[in-house]
């Protein structure tokens, strides 16, 4: 059963001449980890917003095609209803803190209060979310006193507490230091293990290749390709789309090192394994 | 500064009293000070407020608030003592300025009133967490959106101020002079305020989206994480204050006749 | 020597030292400063720039003690590009924005105009000189904030996190800008979290950790000390990791170097 179905999606922001999304169609299955890559302005953020209903329910503008999540058409629903099916985490951890709550624990409660959950259910969900994101020991801190990585995990916890089946993350690590990014990547891979569908925009392709089942390549509002990391990064025209392959792949392309399927390695482990295999074969 | 608030976090009975009761207490003290012009009663109520502040362990924190209004109070004494139209009996003089008894009495009454109201307000502000106060009001029917704005402003304004510091640094790095003559400072205004406005517009939009993803506009009836059990003590206090208010009004009406 | 830092201490709140006894000298080598958030990197460059003054110790910029020199005077010697371009952009024309700094430090209109044009050319945005900065993308605004410092034609240029939230194309652009500045004989200091970016562009690397200098040396040497890097929660560049895993004892910094080795 396909969880997300996108058909002929087109969108233009108000006052803009250009289509931000141009005739995009794809399906995403339950439990998949999807990466989205593309140059700045390719439509990555807009696509995320269209999946979560922010386009066209928050940003108006010209809209065509359909986004269907669990048989519900996003454009015809409303944002609070959608938020129980699909959640979204943004780039800047700072602007995702509500500012109206004094502790991490209460911050996670914000969405649940709005959605009218019973107190016991609320507490259960907050405990679970804080455990999952490894924030439980910070539960009494003021959200603004957290580090960047912790704040971003709090943003994720606040979304996860709504228990959506799908979570969309728009460059969640771009403002963080390496340790903070690693924390977020680990958290996100834990979500996938829990069976949550993860959709993540990310420039750090080395990391993305480690986790993603499939990668979507966008350019100029169009979907160029949607396939496994190996197949996407083995393409030879990536530069035309303003993206770059993981450094391992770039190196192997330069020395012409590929596996029997004709694909290049995309992660450190894959590269090492391939070299070891070739070395054995040669000797 | 994390939060704009005068709240002092302490563990006292006063802190535990329902915020609504403290608001009622303010109402009562405004009413009493307006309706009653009796030195003894007003002194008594003031002493009572001080007693409550002492129990709340915040009496030290009241004095800065009072001293802040001291300038105004002294001005009242001077103006009334010198110029009150009912002035007849001279009391004392400083140089050629003669202070009159009527004006001084009137101004002291006024000061007592101001202090009464000030102390009642302080009791609310110093011993109630702003977020508790707002949540309490939302429970009683204040729009959750307005409640959110009130609550978040207290934390977000200090955050905005720290962005202001960064902007100041960024522009000084480009040779902007921000100190010295007035004209220089005026010139520095736009380079500082421009990015600040753009930044807050951008972050407001981002925050609005993030809030939408957390059911901010949901039509479902809101629930609350924190339990709110009105104790019988709270009820008792409420009835007492309401009784006091009614008594004052009735007494005043009867007394007037 | 461009910059001399002697026994530098700094705190925002007494008793909580952010920088604890930094001794450094900067020659002409392109230098990267790396380390976790909170290690004191940004505070350090603000001190170099004179925006903050040392609590103890001294900083000399081209012989001038920052304690005795105004920020405005230092502005014509040392430039600092802040992380977020939105913290500085306020003009409604790109060209005016870039000319703001040069005019402030006393360049006349013609010189400021020439320098602004040159700077915009360097960041490849000259064709957008008449547009409103806020109609451009965030990446382009970042490049404009870089240009607005380059136009001030300072001998020393500091970049705070230039590659943050940048895609591959803008990253390449920034790489080229650094290379050009190096050719012009300017000292470029960069704070960054991007280890591969460091390995590709910088001759010298300084690791900050908890307010102190943990490592300082040629980039290759610094990235060979994997264990020490780990204590600062840093990892060597990916290529370095790959060659280590493949059993090479040398530290291989970047793709260019990697092509000199035979791995099979």
From TrEMBL, chain A:
Assigned keywords, A-Z: ATP-binding, Cell membrane, Membrane, Nucleotide-binding, Translocase, Transport
SUPFAM superfamilies for this protein: P-loop containing nucleoside triphosphate hydrolases
GO cellular component, as recorded: ATP-binding cassette (ABC) transporter complex
Gene3D superfamilies (UniProt xref): P-loop containing nucleotide triphosphate hydrolases (3.40.50.300)
Domain of life: Bacteria
GO molecular function: ATP binding; ATP hydrolysis activity; ATPase-coupled transmembrane transporter activity
Subcellular localization, as worded in the UniProt entry: Cell membrane
Occurrences of domain ABC transporter (ranges): 4-245
Membrane topology label: Peripheral membrane protein
InterPro entries from the UniProt entry: AAA+_ATPase, ABC_transporter-like_ATP-bd, ABC_transporter-like_CS, ABC_transpr_CbiO/EcfA_su, ECF_ABC_transporter_ATP-bd, P-loop_NTPase
Principal place of residence: membrane
Family: Belongs to the ABC transporter superfamily.
Name of this protein: Cobalt ABC transporter ATP-binding protein
Species for this entry: Caloramator australicus RC3
UniProtKB/TrEMBL annotation, chain B:
Compartments in which it is found: Membrane
Alphabetical keyword list: Cell membrane, Membrane, Transmembrane, Transmembrane helix
A cellular component annotation (GO) from this entry: plasma membrane
TM spans (from-to): 23-56, 62-83, 104-126, 236-255
Domain of life: Bacteria
Pfam annotation, one family: CbiQ
Record's bilayer topology term: Multi-pass membrane protein
Keyword Cell inner membrane: no
PANTHER family reported in the protein's UniProt record: SLL0384 PROTEIN
Listed name of the protein: Transmembrane component STY3231 of energizing module of queuosine-regulated ECF transporter
Automatic annotation (TrEMBL), chain C:
Gene3D superfamilies per record: P-loop containing nucleotide triphosphate hydrolases
One term of GO molecular function: ATP binding
Pfam families reported in the protein's UniProt record: ABC_tran
Localization of this protein: Cell membrane
UniProtKB keywords: ATP-binding, Cell membrane, Membrane, Nucleotide-binding, Translocase, Transport
Membrane topology of this protein: Peripheral membrane protein
GO cellular component: ATP-binding cassette (ABC) transporter complex
Keyword RNA-binding: no
All copies of domain ABC transporter, residue ranges: 3-235
Family according to the record: Belongs to the ABC transporter superfamily.
Protein name: ATPase component STY3233 of energizing module of queuosine-regulated ECF transporter
Species, as recorded: Caloramator australicus RC3
